[in-house]
């Protein structure tokens, strides 16, 4: 008896919550009983062909009612009027309400930051939120023209103010693997980490690397030693504030600080962009190819090296080496390769 009571209580709760499995079971049972009633009422046209019965049931339940199929016998009309019409409308309304409720709940959860974007590919993920900097970061990502059309923000804060095109993910911890998965890290294209502290940033970067070994990570640190250590262990590009150096440059050379800020912003004048050559190329040839596109070569880095070469440049840039240039917009690979002969470029 207790087992039967528990089953009845569970069934009652599921019924009140309008669970999908209960709705499907009710629909199957109703239409099966209806078929039997129509069959015993002599409605051969409706019951002899399964597709005809499904078509009749669907048009009746949805209130479309084309009228090409309808009960022909007195008994069949009574079954339709007293049983099938009200029952099918109830089933249809319940299914429509469940579907609408599920969609509204899913949209609400996504808007509040509880969606799951693990299957999203090629996203740009920002981990951490700063009221003064995150909005600027998003604006520069979009202006940088590097395919950042899917931007996901992972944050612990509930007061994040974001553009409508940014996907929001809220979590208790930034370095939790489950949260990072929801934020599309496993198949992301790039990630920017700006957490509340260097320790949190370091742990988050290690967790990100655990989920995606090839992902390019750019992370901000306050401490230079922590930044250097994180770059070596987690294989990331560590950024440390250069406010002190910029302040000195602004004091010694008026306007230099503003120039440095402008060069870092993709939405203000010329900006620094980078690309990689897939084969060895002469530096003068590369300089001329960039000049043809109103761009200026400013630095080179050889493959596997963290050092940068400025003027005077070496005569040759090896295959796999990167070059950095100033331009008002990001150049495409075809624009640059046009002046490099057989050497291809990856941007």
Total domain modules: 3
- The total count of strands amounts to 12
Helix content: 40-55%
Major pleated sheet: 6 strands, parallel
| Strand order across the largest sheet | 3-2-1-4-5-6
**Span from first to last CA?**
71 Å
Q: What form results from the Cα inertia axes? A: elongated
SSE order: HHHHHEHEEHEHEHEHHEEHEEEHE
Number of helices: 13
**Rg over alpha carbons:** 32 Å
- Unreliable segments of 5+ consecutive residues: none
* CATH architecture field of the largest domain: 3-Layer(aba) Sandwich
CATH T-level topology of the largest domain: Rossmann fold
Task: Please give the structural blueprint.
Blueprint: H1 2-17, H2 20-40, H3 44-47, H4 50-61, H5 74-111, E1 124-127, H6 134-143, E2 151-155, E3 166-170, H7 177-182, E4 190-193, H8 198-211, E5 216-221, H9 224-234, E6 237-240, H10 243-252, H11 256-264, E7 271-277, E8 281-282, H12 283-291, E9 296-301, E10 316-317, E11 322-327, H13 333-337, E12 345-346
Parallel strand pairs: 1-2, 1-4, 2-3, 4-5, 5-6
Antiparallel strand pairs: 7-11, 7-12, 8-10, 9-11
Helix pairs in contact: 2-5, 8-9, 10-11
Describe this structure in words.
With 347 residues, this protein is α/β, with parallel strands linked by helices. It folds into three domains: 2-111, Helix Hairpins (Orthogonal Bundle), CATH 1.10.287.70; 124-244, NAD(P)-binding Rossmann-like Domain (Rossmann fold, 3-Layer(aba) Sandwich), CATH 3.40.50.720; 270-346, 2-Layer Sandwich (Alpha-Beta Plaits), CATH 3.30.70. The chain has 13 helices and twelve strands. The protein has helices at residues 2-17, 20-40, 44-47, 50-61, 74-111, 134-143, 177-182, 198-211, 224-234, 243-252, 256-264, 283-291, 333-337; strands spanning 124-127, 151-155, 166-170, 190-193, 216-221, 237-240, 271-277, 281-282, 296-301, 316-317, 322-327, 345-346. The strands form three sheets. It has a six-stranded parallel β-sheet with strand order 3-2-1-4-5-6. A four-stranded antiparallel β-sheet has the order 9-11-7-12. Helix 2 runs antiparallel to helix 5 (74-111), helix 8 (198-211) runs parallel beside helix 9 (224-234) and helix 10 (243-252) crosses helix 11. The radius of gyration is 32 Å and the shape is elongated. The mean pLDDT is 84.
């Amino acid at each position: 008896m207790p087992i039967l009571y528990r089953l009845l209580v569970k069934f009652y709760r599921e019924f009140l919550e309008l669970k999908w499995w209960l709705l499907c079971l009710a629909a199957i049972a109703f239409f099966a009983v209806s078929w039997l009633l129509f069959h015993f009422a002599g409605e051969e046209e409706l019951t002899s062909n399964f597709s005809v019965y499904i078509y009749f049931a669907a048009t009746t339940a949805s209130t479309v009612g084309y009228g090409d199929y309808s009960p022909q016998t007195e008994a069949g009309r009574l079954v339709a009027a007293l049983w099938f019409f009200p029952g099918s409308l109830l089933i249809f309304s319940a299914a429509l309400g469940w579907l609408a409720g599920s969609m509204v709940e899913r949209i609400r959860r996504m808007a509040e930051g509880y969606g799951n974007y693990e299957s999203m590919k090629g996203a740009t993920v920002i981990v951490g939120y700063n009221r003064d900097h995150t909005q600027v970061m998003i604006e520069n990502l979009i202006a940088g023209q590097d395919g950042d059309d899917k931007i996901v923000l992972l944050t612990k804060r509930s007061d994040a103010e974001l553009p409508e095109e940014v996907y929001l993910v809220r979590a208790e911890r930034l370095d939790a693997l489950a949260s990072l998965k929801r934020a599309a890290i496993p198949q992301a294209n790039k990630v920017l980490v700006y957490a509340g502290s260097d320790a949190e940033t370091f742990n988050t970067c290690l967790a990100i690397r655990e989920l995606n070994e090839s992902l390019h990570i750019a992370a901000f640190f306050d401490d230079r030693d922590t930044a250097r250590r994180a770059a070596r262990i987690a294989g990331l590009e560590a950024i440390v504030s250069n406010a002190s150096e910029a302040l000195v440059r602004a004091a010694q050379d008026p306007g230099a600080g503003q120039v440095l800020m402008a060069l870092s912003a993709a939405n203000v004048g010329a900006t620094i962009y980078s690309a990689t050559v897939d084969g060895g190329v002469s530096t003068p040839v590369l300089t001329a190819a960039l000049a043809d596109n109103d761009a200026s070569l400013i630095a080179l880095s050889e493959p596997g090296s963290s050092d940068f070469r400025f003027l005077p440049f070496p005569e040759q840039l090896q295959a796999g080496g990167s070059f950095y240039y100033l331009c008002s917009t990001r150049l495409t690979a075809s624009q640059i390769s046009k002046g490099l002969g057989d050497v291809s470029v990856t941007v």
